[in-house]
Amino acid sequence: MCREKFTHGRVFLILTLVALLMPVQAFGQLSVNKAGKNWKLQLKTQFLHDDNVAQNPDTPPVVTSQESDSGFNGNLGFNYTHKFNNKISLAADYDIDATVYGDLSQFDLIAQMWGLKPKYKFNESMFVDMQYFYMWNIAGGNSFSGVNYINPSFNHLHKTFGLTRVHYFYKNTDNFQNQARDGDQHGGGITHIYLIPNSKNYVGVGYQVSDEDTDGGILASGAFRDFDRMIHDFKVLGRVMLPEDIQLSGEYKFSYREYDNFAANAAATQRDDKQHNFRFRLRKVLFETLGCLDNVTMRLDYLHQNNESNFLLRDYHSNRFMGGLEARF
Fold first, then answer.
1. What is the pLDDT of residues 252-263, one digit of tens each?
2. Into which CATH architecture does domain 2-328 fall?
3. Is the bond preceding 61 in cis, omega lying within 30 degrees of 0?
4. With contact defined as beta carbons under 8 Å apart, do 39 and 80 qualify?
5. Which H or E run includes 14?
6. 3-class SS at 196?
7. How far apart are the first and last CA of the chain?
């Protein structure tokens, strides 16, 4: 049961981070296209420490202690973008991310992602794209889930007001270990990033609403339970350049998840979760070029997750610290 709790949480976290970073990546891709670069190979290596790897609940006597562990995370990503003309392009991505723990190897996670992203530019400041990717997740050495994700969006970069992104997404999850968690999720939202003039700084806000429909299954008691839920996500984010060209970025996301058919306790109270996610990152370019490497960068990350739930098994908090290097070839 702990493995299922952890893996669902970590897989969701990966997808959440992908979604959160999309607006900033869209702005970055404008710069890359202007520079004429059509491929990128990026490597990240970092050490990590997590004080609640299994996402055990906070409230005794549900659990006696939280399991902490240190480990290693590595990521290799390749992107190739082909420009058919000044308006139409197609990007292909492959990404593999691996997390290995020192003691709790049952929670090791490998995620592979294959993606395509066609893009049509109306002009230099307005474009539409449609991202598709398939993610295959391996938890504890066993295939855990496969995820299909489709995400069309409209993006407009205003010289004064910044970048606005309106998007829709559809996600289909095939859970190899628990068919009751197979499901479809769809939703949409809007994010606005204000680019502070004459600087590399920005601030942003966003909102997304989605509906998740799962297959569900029969419990040992004979009752039927599914995991259908409505999710509201609110976020604020920003970046500021510190002295010595140190980049500090931060993000807060609040998620409210209302379950349709999930009793939180014996009184049959419906389950409601309120999740708070805080993320802070420091980045410093150490070498712009080092042999065949470009932008050798030191990075420090901190992620705090606090899930407030009336279902005590999912009422938990965790802290994750990461530090390492990244570079491009």
1. 999 999 999 888
2. Beta Barrel (2.40)
3. yes
4. yes
5. helix 2-35
6. coil
7. 41
